[in-house]
Design a protein that fits this description.
Number of strands: 47
Domain Leucine-rich repeat-containing N-terminal plant-type: 24-61
Largest sheet: 23 strands, mixed
Helix content: under 10%
Protein name: Leucine-rich repeat-containing N-terminal plant-type domain-containing protein
Mean pLDDT: 94
Bound molecules: 2-acetamido-2-deoxy-beta-D-glucopyranose
Strand content: 25-35%
Oligomer: single chain
Domain Disease resistance R13L4/SHOC-2-like LRR: 266-489
Distance between the termini: 71 Å
Subcellular location: Membrane
Shape: globular
InterPro entries: Leu-rich_rpt, Leu-rich_rpt_typical-subtyp, LRR_dom_sf, LRR_N_plant-typ, LRR_R13L4/SHOC2-like
Length: 636
């Protein structure tokens, strides 16, 4: 989009007076000569016999025949005007520095331009716009760029640039409004000269290796609207001066090493709409001044070490749509003022130390779609009834002290993700669970359900992840595998039925069931299953993890298991399996973990490439050969 605007600015200036200046033509032809591949013929019109101002695509000139803009980027439009991606490969000619009237240079998104950015570009003293993003340029940002004092937009993102950005470069960009250096491998500190770029509105340094502190001169960038330092290694405190950025709309500092408290001045960022400080080492309380961020829509502070009570001033943030405070050390009660967050769609307070009663005011959160209060010592006892009045799609209340039966109102709820794991739910897995046809994720693991799986379970045609491990469920598992699917929905990713009292045998045709066609992880271990391992498991062509340990299985390990080529982990430990270990299974290409210990297997362990420890084979009296002791003669 930036590129399109850029074209509009310059195309109107292209005039038909003077012919192309000889120096400029030479420079452009020299540029073309270093392009070794141009599949979309972006430079085909650039011929020595034609006039570069009037006949060359992507070139615009001033009235004196000097080139003022060069625009060849990696998006072309087909005959129907549909944009298509293309590329151009080669290196950048230093002759481009001879285009002495050039104001705009856009060679962005050509994917395959490589080599260094020529320092000669710094001779372009009229340059206002320089777009070289999304290529493979390497080396550093040339120190000579300090001469580009008229530059307004500089985008070098998504290249392979490395090294420090010379201090003098930042200091000299007095007119710069937009600076993008993201997605490179630039390192070193952020110099305090950054504060000299008084006109800066966008500063994007994300995904590099910058370290050190944010200099307090950042507070001078009072026109800044977007600041993105995420995914670097920046440390120290977030400077108090950040509060001066009253125009700032977007602030992303996530995945760095910031420490210390959040500055109280945060509250002065009155334009802020997006704020992510997640995955840092921030400590201390959330300053109550946070309640002044009246425009903030997404506030993401998860994965830090923030502590203390949640300030009730958060209730003033009525623009808030998403609040992520998970995985901190917040304690005390959830303030009743949270009920004022009428636009809130996501409330994630999971993995904290929150306790006490939930304020009934939360029932006012009519926009809420995702509620995650998991892993807090809330002592809820029951799934709060007010949730049934909302249209919540994701409900996660793992380990919140819920007891008793599954509440029946769930049967007519809109919930598609339900996690009530690690509670003390008991009684039957009710028949009406079959009415929850929107369910795609169900985690009821670590509870005390003790019944069989009701037949109506088959109606869960959207279900893709099922975790019922560590309950006291009985009867047959077959109803799970025979569950309905929809056209492309409802095929399992993962099924965990381990640590229950299910009876077998495992359905012989398990590998042919529609629900199982793309399963990745299957855990049936620690059940009194009996029977043998079905050959059809070999037909599960996306299966990576197979856990069948401690399940009273007998018979052979079927050779067909070796057809499931994506398997990375197989655990068959502690069964009554007999016969040999099939060579094909042991040599599965991606196999990383394998355990057949404590069975009744016999014979030589087949030669295999992967390294499995002795513990993977112990407890089989008849098994021999590396890594176990050598076989006796009779096995040769
Ligand atoms: C054009 O650029 C090249 C490479 O920087 C340089 O050697 C040459 O002298 C320049 N020509 C003119 C006319 O400036
Ligand atoms: C990035 O630079 C660091 C040194 O600053 C180097 O160790 C690392 O390998 C580089 N990474 C890539 C992907 O080039
Ligand atoms: C479950 O669905 C059936 C059929 O759609 C309906 O008759 C029944 O009332 C529902 N039961 C509950 C508990 O919602
Ligand atoms: C279910 O919840 C438990 C914790 O209560 C967790 O360990 C497990 O990974 C969850 N299952 C899935 C499939 O996410
Ligand atoms: C399950 O679906 C069948 C047919 O779609 C329907 O007759 C039955 O009532 C459903 N059962 C429940 C418990 O919703
Ligand atoms: C296989 O399962 C057993 C029993 O649960 C466990 O002790 C063992 O560590 C598992 N093996 C591997 C390789 O994970």
């Amino acid at each position: 989009m930036i590129a399109v605007m850029f074209l509009l600015i310059f195309s109107s200036l292209a005039s038909n007076s003077e012919p192309c200046h000889v120096v400029d033509k030479e420079a452009l032809l020299e540029f073309k000569s270093r392009i070794i591949s141009d599949p979309s013929k972006l430079l085909d019109s650039w011929t020595p016999s034609s006039d570069c101002c009037h006949h060359w695509e992507g070139i615009a000139c001033g009235s004196n025949g000097r080139v003022i803009s060069l625009t060849r980027n990696g998006v072309v439009f087909d005959v129907d005007g549909i944009p298509l991606e293309t590329y151009m490969s080669g290196t950048l000619s230093p002759y481009l520095g001879n285009l002495s009237s050039l104001q705009g240079l856009d060679l962005s998104n050509l994917k395959q331009l490589h080599g260094p950015i020529p320092p000669e570009l710094a001779k372009l003293s009229h340059l206002r716009i320089l777009f070289l993003y999304s290529n493979k340029f390497s080396g550093g940002v040339p120190a000579s760029f300090e001469k580009l004092s008229r530059l307004q937009s500089l985008y070098l993102d998504n290249n392979q640039l490395f090294g420090n950005v010379p201090f003098s470069v930042f200091a000299s960009f007095k007119s710069l409004s937009e600076l993008g250096l993201s997605g490179n491998n630039l390192s070193g500190g952020i110099p305090s000269s950054i504060g000299s770029m008084a006109f800066l509105t966008r500063l994007d340094l994300h995904q590099n290796n910058f370290h050190g502190n944010i200099p307090s001169s950042i507070g001078n960038l009072v026109n800044l609207k977007k600041l993105d330092f995420s995914y670097n290694q920046i440390s120290g405190r977030i400077p108090e001066s950040i509060g001066r950025l009253s125009q700032l709309i977007f602030l992303d500092l996530m995945h760095n090493s910031f420490s210390g408290n959040l500055p109280f001045s945060m509250g002065d960022l009155s334009s802020l709409k997006f704020c992510s400080l997640s995955a840092n080492k921030l400590v201390g309380v959330l300053p109550y001044s946070i309640g002044k961020l009246r425009n903030v829509q997404r506030l993401i502070l998860e994965n830090n070490k923030l502590s203390g009570k949640l300030p009730s001033t958060i209730g003033h943030l009525t623009s808030l749509t998403d609040l992520f405070l998970a995985n901190n050390e917040f304690s005390g009660k959830i303030p009743p003022s949270f009920g004022n967050l009428i636009n809130l769609q996501t409330l994630d307070l999971s993995r904290n130390q929150l306790s006490g009663l939930l304020p009934p005011q939360l029932a006012k959160l009519q926009s809420l779609q995702t509620l995650d209060l998991s892993f807090n010592p809330l002592g809820l006892v029951k799934v709060p009834k007010w949730i049934s009045k909302l249209r919540v799609f994701q409900l996660k209340l793992a380990k919140t002290g819920i007891k008793g039966q599954l509440p029946k109102w769930l049967s007519c709820s809109s919930v598609s993700t339900l996690d009530l794991s690690s509670n003390a739910l008991t009684g039957n897995l009710p028949w009406w669970i079959g009415n929850m046809t929107r369910l795609s994720f169900l985690n009821l693991s670590n509870n005390e359900f003790h019944s069989s799986i009701p037949l109506a379970f088959k109606n869960l045609s959207s279900l893709m992840d099922l975790d019922l491990h560590s309950n006291k469920l009985t009867g047959s598992m077959t109803v799970v595998f025979e569950k309905e699917v929809q056209f492309s929905l409802g095929h399992f990713n993962s099924v965990d039925l381990s640590n229950n009292k299910f009876c077998g045998p495992i359905d012989e045709n398990i590998g042919e069931k529609a629900s199982m066609s793309s399963i990745i992880s299957l855990a049936l271990s620690h059940n009194p299953l009996g029977g043998s391992i079905p050959k059809s498991i070999g037909k599960l062509r996306e299966l990576e993890i197979l856990d069948l340990e401690d399940s009273e299985l007998s018979g052979n390990i079927p050779e067909e298991l070796g057809d499931a080529e994506t398997l990375t982990k197989i655990n068959l430990s502690k069964n009554k399996l007999s016969g040999n270990i099939p060579e094909k299974v042991l040599n599965l290409k991606k196999l990383e973990e394998f355990d057949v210990s404590r069975n009744q297997l016999r014979g030589r362990i087949p030669p295999h490439k992967a390294m499995f420890p002795i513990s993977a084979f112990v407890g089989n009296r008849g098994l021999c050969g590396p890594p176990l002791p050598p076989c006796k003669l009779s096995y040769r």
